[in-house]
C-alpha cells in the first residue's frame, strides 16, 4: 500500500469525537433500561392496594423496601454522572476548531472569488511586503501567500487546484487514527500493554466464563438442571406421590443447598432452632436415611416449609431463611408439574413406561396453593381471610349457617352473615368483606370440536380433538351484585307475580349457571309448547267452523276453549306430552285434508329450507374455522403481560400474581388427557385451546375439564366433558375419476381403449 500514511492525533481532537460516541452508546441505552421507576408511582400503587392487601406480609416488605432502599438512588447517581461526562465531551467537541478545510487561494489572499490578474498581483505585493521574512514577517504565512499567488497566476498550478484541490497536484492518501499520540509513545508502552492485558485477557474472560457457567447450570425457567433431574428421578420412582412425600422431594432441591446456591445459608443457630421446630411439628420423617432427604440442608428446608404451612412463629434468625425457601417453592413446584407432564408424554409415546399418576401432579398444584396461603391441606379455606382463627370456624359450620367455603359465605344474606360474624367488629367485618369481594370467580365455557375437518362436530377415532375453553374473570363482588340485581328485578323473561314470596325464588349466588340456564330454557319451552297447542286447537276449530257452518262452529269453539283450559291446568310433564300429541294429531289431520299437490309444494319448500340450513351450517363452520386460525395467529404474534391481579396472601413474602392451571383429565383412570396449560395472562378474558387425540376405540367417554388456581384454596372448578367417539371413515383405495393422463399420447390411447371396449360391448349385445 504505497503512498499511504498513518497519522496519530497529536492534539487529541479526533479522540474526543471517538470518546463522545463511545460514552453515548453506553449512557443512552443504560438510562432507558436501568433508570429506576418513579418511587411516587410505586407509593401510589401500594396506597391503592392498602385497603385490601394491607395485612399481607409481602405488602409490608414491599412498602419497607420502597421506603428504605438506596439502590434506586445509587442508580440515578451513576446514570447522572454518565450523562455529565457525555455532555462535557459533547461541549468539548463543539469548541474544537475545524482543522481540515478546503484549500481556497482567494481566502488566503483576502480576495473575492473572480478577481482579475491585476488585483491578484496588487494584493500579493501588499501581503508579501507585510509577511516577508526579510522584513520580519511570518515565514509560514509568506509561503502560503506565495503558494496562493502561484495557484492563481500559473496555469499548471491553477489546473491542479481545480482538479485536485491542491496547487501541487494529487497527494498521498492519509489515514488518521482517533487516538492521542501518547498512547503509542514508547515511554508509555508498558502501561498501555498492562491495561490492555487486564481488560481483554483477565476481566473479559472471567465475565464471559461466569455467565456461561451459570447459564449451563440453569434451565430456561431459572431452575437448576440438577434439581430437574432430581425431580424426574423421584417422580418416576414414586408415580403415586402423597403430600408428605412430595414435600420431602420439594425441599431436597439443590436451590436450598449452599454448595449449589449462594443465596442459601447454613447458620450456627440452626443446631438450636431446627430441632426445636422439629419437636413442635411432630413426625416429619427425620430418621429417614434416604439421600438427599437426610442431608442437613434438606431437613432444614423441610422444617421451614412445614412450619410455614402450620403458621408457626419462628425466630428472627431463621425467618429470612424461611422466606427464601417459601419464595422459591412455587417455581420449583411448577417445574415438578412440567416434569410430570414430560414423563406422561414419554409413557404415552414409548409404552411400558410408568407415568406419574394424576394425583401426584394435582398434589403439586395443591401444595402451591398451600404454600402461597400458608395453610395445611386439611384446613378450611375460610382461614385465607383476615381475622379468621380456628376457634371462629365453629360459628360458620353450625347447623344454622353451614358455611364451609368462600362461596357459601358470599351467598349468605347480609343479616345472616353479619350475625354469624358477630365476633368481628365493624372495622374488621368491613375489611373481611373487602378482601372477600376481591377474590376471583371464573366463568368457564367449553366448546368441543375437530378443527380442519369437514364435520367439526363429528369426533372419530384417532382424530385430534380441540377443546376451546373461554375463561372470564370477575370478582365475587361483581357476581354477587349481578345476581342480587337479577333477583330483585325478577329477570327480564319471568317477572315475579304479586304476592309471591321473593325469598323463596332467590337462588344461591354459586348455583351452577348451566342448571339455571336449563331451567329457564325448559320454562320457555313449556310456554311455547302450551301456546302452540292452544293455537293448533284454535286453527282446528276454525276449520271445523268453516266446514260445518256457524252453528257447528259455535258448538266447537267452547270445546276448544275448554280443552285449552284443561291443558293449562295439567302438570308440566303431562302438559308437554299432551301438547305434543295434540300437535302431531292436528298436523296429521291437516295433512290428510290437504291435496296431493299442496303436499308436494310443502315438501319442496321444506327440502329447500333444509338445503338452506345445511348451507348456513357449512358457512358457520367455515367462519368458525377461520376465526380459530386467526386466534392462533394472534396468539403467536401477541405477547401478553404476565401481570394480572395481585394475590391476597397473608404469609407469602413476595407479591404473587394470580395464575391458573387448565387441563383435561380422566379422573376414573387417574390419567392426564391433555397437558396442563399454565394460564398466566388472565386479566379479564382468556381463550385457551386444549388439544388431545381421541381414543382409538369407539364409544362414550367421560372426561373432566379442570381449572386450578396456583394461589387460592377452594376456588378450583371441575366441569364434565362428554366425548362420543365414532368410527373413522374408510378411505377408498381406487379413485378412477382421479386417474388423469399426464400427456396427450396417453389421453389418446385411453380414448382408443375406451372406444374398443364400447364396440365390444355393443357386439355382445347384438349377439
TrEMBL record:
Key word Mitochondrion present in the record? no
**Where is it located?**
Endoplasmic reticulum membrane
Basic and acidic residues composition-biased segments? 580-608
The answer on whether this UniProt entry bears the keyword Ion transport reads no
Basic residues: bias regions: 515-533
Summarize the subunit comment: The ER translocon complex consists of channel-forming core components SEC61A1, SEC61B and SEC61G and different auxiliary components such as SEC62 and SEC63.
Stated name of the protein:
Translocation protein SEC63 homolog
Amino acid at each position: 500500500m504505497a503512498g499511504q500514511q498513518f497519522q496519530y492525533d497529536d492534539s487529541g481532537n479526533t479522540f474526543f469525537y471517538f470518546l463522545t460516541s463511545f460514552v453515548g452508546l453506553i449512557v443512552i441505552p443504560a438510562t432507558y433500561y436501568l433508570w429506576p421507576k418513579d418511587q411516587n408511582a410505586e407509593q401510589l400503587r401500594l396506597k391503592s392496594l392498602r385497603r385490601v392487601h394491607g395485612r399481607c406480609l409481602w405488602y409490608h416488605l414491599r412498602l419497607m423496601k420502597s421506603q428504605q432502599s438506596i439502590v434506586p438512588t445509587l442508580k440515578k447517581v451513576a446514570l447522572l454522572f454518565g450523562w455529565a461526562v457525555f455532555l462535557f465531551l459533547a461541549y468539548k467537541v463543539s469548541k474544537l476548531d475545524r482543522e481540515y478545510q478546503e484549500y481556497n487561494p482567494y481566502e488566503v489572499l483576502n480576495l473575492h472569488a473572480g478577481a482579475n490578474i491585476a488585483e491578484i498581483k496588487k494584493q500579493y505585493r501588499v501581503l508579501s511586503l507585510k509577511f516577508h521574512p526579510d522584513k520580519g514577517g511570518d515565514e509560514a504565512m509568506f509561503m502560503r501567500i506565495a503558494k496562493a499567488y502561484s495557484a492563481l497566476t500559473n496555469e499548471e498550478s491553477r489546473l491542479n487546484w481545480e482538479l485536485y484541490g491542491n496547487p501541487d497536484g494529487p497527494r498521498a492518501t492519509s489515514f488518521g487514527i482517533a487516538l492521542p499520540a501518547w498512547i503509542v509513545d514508547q515511554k508509555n508502552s508498558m502501561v498501555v500493554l498492562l491495561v490492555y492485558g487486564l481488560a481483554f485477557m483477565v476481566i473479559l474472560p472471567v465475565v464471559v466464563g461466569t455467565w456461561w457457567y451459570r447459564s449451563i447450570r440453569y434451565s430456561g425457567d431459572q431452575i437448576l438442571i440438577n434439581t430437574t433431574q432430581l425431580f424426574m428421578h423421584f417422580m418416576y420412582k414414586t408415580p403415586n406421590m402423597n403430600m408428605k412425600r412430595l414435600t420431602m422431594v420439594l425441599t431436597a432441591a439443590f436451590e436450598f443447598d449452599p454448595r449449589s446456591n449462594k443465596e442459601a445459608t447454613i447458620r450456627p443457630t440452626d443446631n438450636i432452632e431446627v430441632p426445636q421446630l422439629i419437636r413442635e411439628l411432630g413426625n416429619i420423617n427425620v430418621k429417614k436415611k434416604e439421600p438427599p432427604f437426610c442431608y442437613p440442608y434438606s431437613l432444614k428446608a423441610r422444617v421451614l416449609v412445614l412450619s410455614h404451612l402450620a403458621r408457626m412463629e419462628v425466630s428472627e434468625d431463621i425467618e429470612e431463611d424461611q422466606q427464601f425457601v417459601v419464595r422459591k417453592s412455587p417455581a420449583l413446584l411448577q417445574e415438578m408439574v412440567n416434569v410430570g407432564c414430560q414423563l406422561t408424554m414419554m409413557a404415552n409415546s414409548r409404552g411400558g413406561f410408568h407415568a406419574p399418576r394424576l394425583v401426584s401432579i394435582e398434589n403439586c398444584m395443591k401444595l402451591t396453593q398451600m404454600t402461597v396461603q400458608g395453610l395445611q391441606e386439611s384446613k378450611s379455606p375460610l382461614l385465607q381471610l383476615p381475622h379468621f382463627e380456628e376457634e371462629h370456624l365453629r360459628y360458620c359450620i353450625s347447623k344454622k349457617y353451614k358455611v364451609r367455603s368462600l362461596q357459601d359465605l358470599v351467598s349468605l344474606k347480609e343479616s345472616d352473615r353479619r350475625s354469624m360474624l358477630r365476633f368481628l367488629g365493624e372495622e374488621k367485618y368491613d375489611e373481611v368483606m373487602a378482601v372477600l369481594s376481591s377474590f376471583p370467580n371464573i366463568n368457564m365455557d367449553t366448546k368441543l370440536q375437530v378443527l380442519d375437518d369437514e364435520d367439526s362436530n363429528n369426533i372419530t377415532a384417532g382424530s385430534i380433538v380441540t377443546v376451546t375453553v373461554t375463561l372470564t374473570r370477575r370478582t365475587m363482588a361483581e357476581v354477587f351484585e349481578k345476581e342480587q340485581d337479577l333477583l330483585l328485578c325478577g329477570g327480564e323473561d319471568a317477572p315475579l307475580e304479586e304476592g309471591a314470596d321473593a325469598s323463596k325464588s332467590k337462588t344461591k349466588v354459586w348455583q351452577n349457571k348451566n342448571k339455571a340456564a336449563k331451567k329457564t330454557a325448559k320454562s320457555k319451552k313449556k310456554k311455547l309448547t302450551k301456546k302452540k297447542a292452544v293455537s293448533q286447537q284454535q286453527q282446528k276449530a276454525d276449520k271445523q267452523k268453516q266446514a260445518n257452518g256457524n252453528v257447528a262452529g259455535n258448538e266447537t269453539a267452547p270445546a276448544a276453549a275448554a280443552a285449552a283450559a284443561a291443558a293449562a291446568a295439567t302438570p308440566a310433564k303431562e302438559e308437554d306430552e299432551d301438547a305434543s300429541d295434540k300437535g302431531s294429531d292436528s298436523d296429521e289431520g291437516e295433512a290428510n285434508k290437504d291435496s296431493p299437490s299442496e303436499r308436494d309444494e310443502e315438501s319442496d319448500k321444506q327440502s329447500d329450507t333444509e338445503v338452506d340450513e345445511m348451507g348456513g351450517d357449512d358457512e358457520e363452520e367455515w367462519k368458525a374455522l377461520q376465526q380459530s386460525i386467526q386466534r392462533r395467529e394472534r396468539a403467536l404474534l401477541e405477547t401478553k403481560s404476565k401481570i394480572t391481579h395481585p394475590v391476597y396472601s397473608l404469609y407469602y413474602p413476595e407479591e404473587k400474581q394470580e395464575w391458573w392451571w387448565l387441563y383435561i383429565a380422566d379422573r376414573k383412570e387417574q390419567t392426564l388427557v391433555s397437558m396442563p396449560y399454565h394460564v398466566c395472562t388472565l386479566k379479564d378474558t382468556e381463550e385457551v385451546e386444549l388439544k388431545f387425540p381421541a381414543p382409538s376405540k369407539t364409544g362414550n367417554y367421560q372426561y373432566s375439564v379442570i381449572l386450578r388456581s396456583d394461589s387460592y384454596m377452594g376456588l378450583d372448578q371441575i366441569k364434565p366433558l362428554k366425548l362420543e367417539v365414532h368410527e373413522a371413515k374408510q378411505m377408498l383405495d381406487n379413485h378412477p375419476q382421479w386417474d388423469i393422463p399426464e400427456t396427450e399420447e396417453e389421453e389418446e390411447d385411453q380414448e382408443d381403449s375406451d372406444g374398443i371396449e364400447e364396440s365390444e360391448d355393443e357386439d355382445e349385445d347384438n349377439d
